[in-house]
Amino acid sequence: QSTRRTGGVAQTEVLAHHLGMHHQFAKALHFQGGAYGLAVLSRWPILRHRVHALPYRLGQEPRIALETWIAPGEGRPELHLVDVHLCHMSSETRQEQVQRVLQLIDHRGAALTLLAGDFNARPASPPMEWLWEQGWQDDLKPHRGIDYVLRAPGSKLKRRSAKILNAPTASDHLPVMVTYDWPEVD
């Protein structure tokens, strides 16, 4: 966000403007005269957000979780989205970060909760195995990468489709896209 490597452009704002979307940016650290962090773009209004610092060790970058509540309208309940970018240096730190994220969100109810982002972890790694044991569902199976969109245990969202896009110029990761069917409104 507004760094030298982006030419001072506030990328989240520019993308949101061009796509006609709502946006939220959260800074994890100062970087090249701007900020490095997480962003959410949504076609629906973002009602509120919270930023949570995640554990890290000396020599590691500070990491955050960006929690947003999104209003889909038409009488449908809010979507609770938690965006993460976990430590790439240590599986132990990633495990601590994942556990902290679940401590932050488990009391809110999971019917419409998604946990998504760059986990920097393969599916069989300890942090991900721990999430599977907690009942989180990977909507990108079979999984090859380190980026995930996970549904909370007991989620009422139903995956319609999921794919990993072959667009290596978009990121140093392969972008992922998941489409959900919304639960019926009572």
What's the short story on this structure?
The protein is 17% helix and 37% strand. With 186 residues, it is an alpha+beta fold.
**CA(first)-CA(last) distance:** 41 Å
Q: Class of the largest domain, according to the CATH hierarchy?
A: Alpha Beta
Ranges where pLDDT stays below 50 over 5 or more residues in a row are none
> How many distinct beta strands?
10
Structural class: alpha+beta
Average per-residue pLDDT, rounded, comes to 86
Strand order of the largest sheet: 3-4-5-6-8-7
β-strand percent reads 35-45%
Shape: globular
Q: How would you spell out the order of helices and strands?
A: HEEEEEHEHEEEE
CATH homolog superfamily of the largest domain: Endonuclease/exonuclease/phosphatase
Describe the structure.
The chain is an alpha+beta fold. It has helices at 11-19, 91-105, 126-133, and strands at 22-31, 34-42, 46-54, 63-70, 79-85, 113-118, 137-138, 147-151, 158-164, 176-181. The termini are far apart.
